[in-house]
Amino acid sequence: MQAGDVIDDRFVIERVAGSGGMGSVFRAHDRLSGGPVAVKVLHDREPRDIARFDMEARVLAGLDHPGIVRYVTHGVTRAGEPFLAMEWLAGEELGARLSRGRLTIEESVAVLGAAASALATAHSRGVVHRDIKPSNVFLVDGALDRVKLLDFGLARFPLSPRFTRTGVVLGTPSYMAPEQARGAPSLDARVDVFALGAVLFECLTGQPAFQGEHVMAILAKVLLEDPPPLRKLRPEASVRLEALVACMLAKDPADRLADAGEVAEALACLDARHAWSWLSEVPPAEALTRSEQRLLSIVAVGALAEEDVESTRTRREALESAAKTFGARVEWLADGSMLAVFMNAASASDVAARAARCALQMRLRVPDAPVAIATGLGEVAEALPIGQVLDRAAVLLRAAGRWVLVDEVTAGLFDARFVVVRGPSGIELHREEEISAAARTLLGKPSPFVGRTRELRILLDLLDESVGESVARAVLVTGPPGIGKSRLRQEFVYAAFQHHPEVNVWIGRGDAMSKGSAFALAGSALRHAFAVAGHESIDERRRKLAERVARHVAEPEVRHVAAFLGEMTGTPFPDDDSAKLRAARLDARLMADQIQNSFRQFMAAECRAHPVLLVLEDLHWGDLPSVKLVDAALRDLAGKPLVVAAFGRPEVHDVFPKVWAERGLSEIRLGELTPRAAEELARSALGTTAEPRTIARIVKRAAGHPFFLEELIRAVAEGRGEQLPETVLAMVEARLAALSSDARRVLRAASVFGDVFWCGGVEHLLGGGDEARCAHDWLEMLATREVLQRSEASRFPGEEEYSFRHSLLREGAYGMLTEPDRTLGHRLVGEWLVQWGEGDALRLAEHFERGKSQERAAEWYLAAARQMLQANDLHGAVTCTERGLGCGASGRLRTELFLVRGEAQGTSGDWAALGSSMAALDLCEIAPGDSLWALAIAGKVIWAVVSGRSRELSEDIRALLEVEASPESVRTLVDAIAYVHEALMIVSSRHDHARLCAARMEQLGSPIAVHDPVVRGRLYEVRSSELFFEGNSWGSLEAARAAIASYEEAGDRRHAARTRLRVARNLLCMGAYARAEEELRSVLVDNEGAVAFEGRCSLALALAAQGALEEARATLADVGGLDLVRNNPYYEGITRVTLASVLRGSGELDAAEREVRAGMEILSRLGTSRWYFETRATLAAVLVRQQRADEALRLFEDAAEKYDASGGGRPFEMALCLTRAEALHATGNHARARALLLDTRDLLLSRAATIDDPELRRSFLENVPENARILALAAAWEKDAA
Question: What is the per-residue pLDDT for 1210?
């Protein structure tokens, strides 16, 4: 384009003002305005460049601020080149001004304040500049108070498309924020805040905050280093200004000011006394350091005077060759001297011995050079070891002559093979005697599978039996770390495929950092079964999961099963069309029930189609919910070809006592290899050239332990056979010490994650930058060196996953961390995992606690406790809440922890502990009506009820019932009142309060019940409870069935199971004993805690009513062994009263009397009035049968007043009246007895009339012994009276 050319019939080109690779800027005359303009023309025709140019034009067109270059128009020239016309500016760029020297503090603040004010306009419109730098800050006419921002070519609107090519970094490195340097896909205004900070630093100091010769070097500093403190370079700057600059340049965006508006405000407020005082507390950049506390032996070799270039080269080659032979790390110093560093062999003596041999070899190769050795603790940072060890080596080197000099520490570590002499200059090392050469071989040579043939045969026999006879089998292989469990597993899986190609093999693995996390182990196995990889898109994972489920699961159930298995495997499905999934996501317990049901459906379908081999590695790091899922599968699929093969350390029995003991579990305990097997392994790895005595020594020291043997073989293969370590831990340290410092730092970072880690996570701990981006190469190298192994799939999309080949390798690397690095590392790991959506709350809590981030740890312990409740792991839930409280949780968080702990304790029947949890609640800072407030009040009321203090509850119950509920808290309030109602009905006799609760629930829940099946179910359940208390068994049964239907609509199996107990109890009351038994056995299949207790007690009564007295007694004996009963006298009392009823039916009246009196004593002591009348009715019936009618009558007289005061009713009312009438009749009060019995008959018949089901009406009158006797006696006594 030439002078005189016209663009858009408006702009006449005058001259070229500047040009670059993509375009040019011209000064032009605007015919419309008559003034000069700057016209920017794009020559590059690349679509992304055109799009970016168009974005700049649209951004400028939308910005109107005196501090931003003014937009005129834009379009396309006749030649098809995009152009952008802007106001013409005369003056200079800030960069040109800084090239002449730094600004004053006042000038710097003014320039940046003006720039920030202009940029704030862009930020307020969602525009991020992304290229703020001195050359894009223009000083109009050179005036520092007239600032214009230029070049919005990289600016972006929110949600605008990206135009950056992969691997291309846009922006200016010295001014890029760390997240911009990392190529983060989403950038906000804080990247401009960082750039403004860099410009402000340069204005104040005259030098860039980050500088280097190469782009990558600059980026590394941006990511890893902090610039020097401002006041170090500009002492007259205020502390507040220094803090502001540091805040703007913070590595973490969260630690910076939010946008340019805050920057402008901060700069304007610098002189105010109290404004922005927090700016002095900016955290430093965080990354693991390079420092290590290591045991060192240093061989120092001095330089030779007047040495020519060729001699120097030859000497260096000779020394480096000798050092390499002995595995030393070499550092050359500026004066020509050399250091060979030996660290972390098996023991201090091994370190010293290796150093001594190296020094003697160097002395032979370079006889004229002085050589010295020093040993001790030294801190290793960057390239050189520092501390007293290096100082001592330097002192010895100056005195060394003909002999190698050693310090006292080194000499004390030598064994008898080293000949040392004390000479005039110090301790001289002369020689080593009787040195044996160790055989060498290549690493990675395949080794045979030896010494485990018998164990493999057992596993294959179990598989053959399962497949051939269609039976489920379980086997547990145990052994200490490194004993060969993983190798046996590999061989078993391979052989399984060879023997039975039709078998489906699913492999799950426990992890040390997430041990105990709900469903983690089972989820791992399912991910393997579904071939779901973390790097795949969510849609792809959903497709694979759904297709895999659809192979064998019935078509109507596929979506349901896939959705809940997706919750286990980190593949969540949308819940728009699933009321059950929506409901489960609001209720942890409900989610657990749905997951368990879906897993069982899937397993059943798979085993019907083909044999399944479920392999579970590291079971000792598994979780109770997964173990229970597997137990249920083994039980349900006992007649199907299912084999569960678990592998774990011996402590698995402590973690999961009696694991699968009821499923015929076989156990294989792996012991040491025989000497012959160990020798075969060693010879295979080392080859035929290995000396017999070397093999024998390795075998002897390994003592049959495969991992020890493997490490010893590696030591020999790597030339360290002469320094065989005394312990395996020392061998691990020796192996890690042979790696480079960068590799060790990568391993230390990886070890913080646990056994499994991710490349991006390691980079995060290393602080980013060039070095961190090399982490992938180091990890690959370490995998080649057999320290790590790369996983085929990853839990996190796009992140490469690795694991340590052995847990001891991880422990060794972890032990090398300094305490500050360990603390920092765990916090950084936690933050990284949160960023990547880690769903294992317990894992996150562990990391934050170890990272001393106590509040965040407590938050995640709360989440973990809820996950445990979801999986019905009550002990785990209590443990997590206690750990969260131990982190110093306060305020609302502390209250939530106590509530979750109380829920777990109450469900488990530990009422004493529940009381301590409820007593600790502090509701002062929680507003009435808040969901948390409602649950807390309910918890306190329930505790008061179960502890026998229900008369003190009026105020709390009134507060709960009268509080105004917000729309978002109605559901929780209904739930809270329902729990209170249940406690009042089951434990207490405060039915007046219970009725008020029921009425309030109806008022609150009815408007939302039509759309909320859980609330609807709660309302029906409460109605069923009320009707049952009134003695209306049929009405109670109908309401319970309606409740179950509502719960099943929502997929709420937990509440449905509890309500099915109500169905069973009503069937018992109506004499349908067989139907009640069937219902109860179904409920007992998958339930624990209070539901299991109530179900077994009711089952015992159903069995006794059908004449199965021995089975009834056996059932109650099982009840007595439950932890719930052993730990809670309330449940013990109920068990005794129930047993008394069974014993009475069998005619064992004396035993029945003993049990009922013991139960009465326990329940009376607890103050639980709910059982007052039932216990006395049972005892009175026993007394009448024992011909002790007078005692029975006195019992009735004591209870009569309380019974009338309570409002009468109850399902046992007629049995109570029958017993009283019989007692009256036995004592000669025939008229009173007859009148009472006739009234009772009329009541009985009136209740029978309410039963719509003819069969149930008949069984109510004929099958219930008390009812049949009422009718028979009434007829007989009427006849006698006539």
Answer: 59
- Mean confidence (pLDDT) of the chain: 84
1118 is catalytic: no
Strands 137-140 and 666-669: unpaired
**372 touches 393 (CB < 8 A):** yes
d(CA 532, CA 751) in angstroms, rounded, equals 26
**pLDDT score of 159:** 39
The pLDDT of 71-93, averaged and rounded, is: 92
Bridge partners, 647 (sequence order): 477
The residue to which tokens 């003819």 are assigned: 1254
The CA-CA-CA angle for residues 35, 36, 39, to 5°, reads 135
List, edge to edge, every strand of the sheet that includes 504-509: 504-509, 612-617, 642-648, 473-478, 666-669
Q: Quick one: how far is CA 32 from the chain centroid?
A: 66
Closest CA to 244 of 52, 116, 399: 116
| Distance, CA of 815 to chain centre | 23
Question: 30, 131, 636, 930: which one is catalytic?
Answer: 131
Q: What confidence tier does 863 reach under pLDDT thresholds 50, 70, 90?
A: very high
Query: Pseudo-torsion of CA 328, 332, 338, 339, nearest 10°?
Result: -40
Question: How far does CA 1059 lie from the centroid of its chain?
Answer: 33
Summarised one tens digit per residue, pLDDT across range 1007-1034 is 999 999 999 999 999 999 999 988 899 9
Distance CA 708, CA 729 (A): 9
CB 94 within 8 A of CB 135: yes
- 273: pLDDT strictly greater than 70: no
Q: Residue 587 CB: number of other CB atoms within 10 A?
A: 21
Q: What confidence tens digit (pLDDT) does each residue in 170-198 have? A: 678 889 888 887 667 678 999 999 999 99
Rounded CA separation 760/801 (Å) = 9
- Strands lying side by side in the sheet with 756-758: 756-758, 801-804, 788-790
Sign of the C-alpha dihedral computed for residues 250, 252, 253 and 256 taken in this order = negative
DSSP collapsed to 3 states, 1089-1149: HHHHHHHHHHHHHHHHHCCCHHHHHHHHHHHHCCHHHHHCHHHHHHHHHHHHHHHHHCCCH
Question: At CA 339, angle to CA 333 and CA 344, rounded to 5?
Answer: 140
- 1110 — pLDDT class (breaks 50, 70, 90): very high
Determine the residue type at 869. L
349: confidence class by pLDDT, cuts 50, 70, 90: low
Task: Please say whether the beta carbons of 681 and 673 come within 8 A.
Answer: yes
Q: Write down the residue that tokens 């109650």 correspond to.
A: 1116
What distance in Å separates the CA atoms of residue 445 and residue 464, rounded to the nearest whole number? 33
Give every CB contact of residue 619 below 8 A, 6+ residues apart in sequence: 476, 510, 521, 627, 646, 647, 648, 652, 656, 659
